[in-house]
Design goal:
The chain has helices at 2-17, 23-51, 55-61, 76-108, 112-137, 145-158, 161-176, 216-221, 248-261, 298-316; strands at 65-69, 72-75, 184-187, 190-197, 201-205, 211-215, 225-226, 233-242, 272-278, 283-292. With 335 residues, the chain is α+β, with helices and mostly antiparallel strands. It has three domains: 2-159, no CATH class; 179-226, SH3 type barrels; 233-316, Alpha-Beta Plaits (2-Layer Sandwich). It has a five-stranded antiparallel beta sheet. A three-stranded antiparallel beta sheet has the order 8-10-9, with helices on one face. A two-stranded antiparallel ribbon has the order 1-2.
Length: 335
């Protein structure tokens, strides 16, 4: 308990110094606290039961058989030991992932997407290794897993094709590198950032803070737009119509100046103006601009530009027309 409170006090002082918005540091602090609490509670309970002479009697009481696997009688005590060993591997794996995210990956220049894939590999590998070691340490013959493997294969063949497709697609996404955590993607018209990649589904959060769980097989079979794969810069179009009385060159000049003055528009690419058509009530133009889709919502930049264009047209006396019809009435001359 003395060691627990000493480490906990040091951890609290360190937690107060880190930035609350630093998710990797916060995750590392939580992982250390969880593993420390688990180890302290487990050790304390074992020591107290042993000092009171209750550990061995308790073990004998819980040594009644629950299930038989092969030649091994699985008792309640064996199940508890296996669970405790597996939990130790899970908490240690979380601590390792947090330390890699916080210290190792930034030091060697690994980007967050690749780091997330590597952490996912560490997580599932640690779980499988911990599961096998826990079974081996409690004396269970691992050959019985072959029976479950055969049953699993039959289950997949009969009714779990969809689940199997999602799981296989999940591994393809995690280790394929085409879609990573933090990427901005468009799936079926839904634009959002990838926040988590699970084995069966991928979680996407939109700008409206709506989270979608999309089956992984959809990423393999459908067309996905990944704005973070090579470049997040995209070009968008703003249709603008003005009166026939307006000077097209003046309209072009105003539109370009508005785009250059707007901070949401990328300064790396020059905006352009297209003269589109002679319409019924207006001459129509298109303002083409570039934005970083990860940082700038398209509707927001369109709104800002339309506000500015309206104000500049009003100053220049340029009319924005609307559909109208002139009606001429002919009266028949009286005879």
């Amino acid at each position: 308990m003395l060691g627990y409170h000493t480490i906990k006090g040091w951890l609290q002082k360190w937690s107060q110094k880190i930035d609350p918005s630093d998710e990797t540091a916060q995750f590392l602090a939580r992982s250390i606290k969880t593993l420390l609490l688990y180890a302290t509670v487990l050790t304390t309970v074992i020591i107290i039961l042993n000092l009171l002479g209750l550990l061995h009697p308790l073990q004998r009481i819980m040594s009644f058989p629950v299930i038989k696997l092969g030649n091994t009688q699985v008792t309640f005590w064996i199940i508890i030991k296996a669970i405790l060993i597996l939990l130790a591997f899970v908490f240690a794996s979380r601590l390792l992932q947090a330390y890699l995210d916080y210290k190792v990956y930034p030091a060697v220049g690994i980007d967050p997407g690749l780091g997330y894939a590597m952490n996912t590999s560490v997580k599932y590998s640690s779980f499988v290794i911990g599961f096998l070691i826990s079974l081996k340490m409690v004396g269970i013959d691992l050959r019985f897993l072959l029976v479950f493997a055969g049953a699993l294969g039959i289950g997949i063949g009969l009714g779990l094709q969809n689940m199997a497709a999602n799981v296989i697609s999940g591994f393809t996404i995690i280790f394929g590198g085409k879609i990573r955590k933090g990427d901005w993607i468009d799936v079926g018209g839904t634009l959002g950032v990838v926040t988590d990649i699970f084995l069966r589904a991928t979680k996407i959060r939109t700008r409206d803070n709506i989270e979608y769980l999309i089956p992984n097989s959809k990423f393999i079979s459908d067309t996905i737009i990944n704005y973070s794969l090579s470049s997040p810069m995209i070009r968008i179009e703003l249709p603008v119509g003005v009166s026939y009385n307006a000077d097209p060159r003046e309209v072009e000049k105003i539109l370009l100046q508005v785009a250059k003055n707007e901070p949401l528009v990328s300064a790396d690419e020059e905006p352009t103006v297209r003269f589109v058509e002679y319409a019924d009530s207006s001459i129509n133009f298109e303002l083409l601009i570039w934005i970083d889709v990860r940082k700038t919502p398209r509707r927001r930049v369109r709104s800002a530009l339309y506000f500015a264009i309206f104000e500049e047209f009003e100053k220049a006396g340029i009319e924005i027309p609307f559909p109208q019809r002139d009606i001429h009435i002919r009266s028949r001359a009286e005879q």
